[in-house]
Structure formats: C-alpha cells, structure tokens
Amino acid sequence: MPKKHSKRYNSGVKVADLTKEYPLAEAIEVLAKFPKAKFDETVELSFRLGVDATSGEQNVRGTTPLPNGSGKKVRVLVFTDNADAAMAAGADFAGLDEMMAKIQGGWLDFDVAIATTEAMKKVRTLARVLGPKGLMPNPKSGTVTDDIVAGIKAVKAGRVEFKMDKTANIGLGVGKRSFTSQQIIENAQAVIEAVGKAKPNTFKGHNFIRSITISSSMSPAVKIASTEFSKY
C-alpha cells in the first residue's frame, strides 16, 4: 500500500522539484516556501555516510557549536557533588546520588548530561540507561569535564552533538523555521564541516558523505547539491 502523506506534506511537494539537488542557499529558500506548522519547527540536516556501519573503527561522532544557537531551550543535568555551584552556573538539575536514583526510577526529563571526572566513577553504572538515549556523558563530546561553568555555557549556547546510527545516518537540528535564511546557512555550514572533519582515519574510499538533505519537522526533504560537501 502506498505511503499516505499529510495535506501539508503534499502541498509542500508542489513548491519545488524534489528530485533535484540544490545548493545550500537555494535549498533553504525552497524550505522557506513550504507551508508552516502551528509551532516553530526544527530545521534538520540528514546525512547518509559511506562508512562501514558494522565497523567500530568507522563510528562517526563529534560536537560542534552552532554560530546562531539551536533555537531550543536545553535542559542540562550536571552530575556532581557540588550541586549548588552547578545550579549557580546555570544547570537545570544537579547532584549525584539523588539524581542517579531518579534516573534509575525512570526520570529522563533533561536534554544533556554533564559530569565531573570524579562523578563519572559512579555515573558509568547508568550506561545501559543513558547510552541508548544518547544522554551518557562522554569526554569526546565535552560532557565529561571539571570546568562545569564552561561546559554548561557551551551547551546552552548551542553546542550540539552528532552520532552516526546503525545504518550510517546522522540527523541533526540546525535551527528553527523562525531563523533567518542566513542563520540557517551558517549553522548548516558549521555542521557539514564538523561531520566532514569527523571522517575516520580508517575510511579509505571516496564520498565519505554520500548525501545530505534538509527538512523541517513537517516538511518534505530537499536534496543538497554534492558540491557543498564533495571535498569530504
């Protein structure tokens, strides 16, 4: 049975030829013409990578600041013995044993978790709970740090983490529909560059980034021309 799309999706298809590839700026112009939802939709880049998704040595992950922020209010949990200092630095939730107990009880109402190196000795026991949700603090993503003030500031300012899934895809928000085209362009360029630089050393083929599309929460996807990422 053919997949049914919403009226908004079908009307969006009429805006442009979605079989074509567009330079980034033009793709964002096409996106801007799609009908808007009643909420401020997230604009997302979706990457298809050429790596071997079954090889641990070719796992792709990293972080990048978004020049214009994500447009999203980020709820930050800090695992630390000094909860007062973390809250004063802007954390939404902070603590250690009591926070761990809440999580083990099913609570996950936060977007990013940061931990001090000392706290990680205990937090590691939550790996099976936080790992599958993408919430486990990790030194590579800058979320295991003893500079809690800087860690919170970076996350709140719009630093985002990306991680390849089991099918060699990455999806990452680069702003909101309410952003200007230039803000989305700058954020998207930062993300494309960051993903490109995350190419594993063991990847020896061509076309590390095979394709990229841009879409909003309720819109069709627009293909981005390979000239925007061919150097990767």
Automatic annotation (TrEMBL):
Question: What Pfam family does this protein match (any one)?
Answer: Ribosomal_L1
Q: Which Gene3D superfamilies match?
A: 3.30.190.20, 3.40.50.790
Alphabetical UniProt keywords: Repressor, Ribonucleoprotein, Ribosomal protein, RNA-binding, rRNA-binding, Translation regulation, tRNA-binding
What GO CC annotations are associated with the protein?
A: large ribosomal subunit
Give the residue spans that cross the bilayer.
Answer: none
Q: Name one GO molecular function term.
A: structural constituent of ribosome
GO BP terms: regulation of translation; translation
Record function comment = Binds directly to 23S rRNA. The L1 stalk is quite mobile in the ribosome, and is involved in E site tRNA release.
PANTHER family (UniProt xref): 54S RIBOSOMAL PROTEIN L1, MITOCHONDRIAL (PTHR36427), LARGE RIBOSOMAL SUBUNIT PROTEIN UL1M (PTHR36427:SF3)
What subunit structure does UniProt give?
Part of the 50S ribosomal subunit.
Tell me the HAMAP family matching this sequence: Ribosomal_uL1_B (MF_01318_B)
User: Which family does the UniProt entry place this protein in?
Assistant: Belongs to the universal ribosomal protein uL1 family.
- Identify this protein by name: Large ribosomal subunit protein uL1
Q: Which organism is it from?
A: Opitutus terrae (strain DSM 11246 / JCM 15787 / PB90-1)
Native organism taxonomy: Bacteria, Pseudomonadati, Verrucomicrobiota, Opitutia, Opitutales
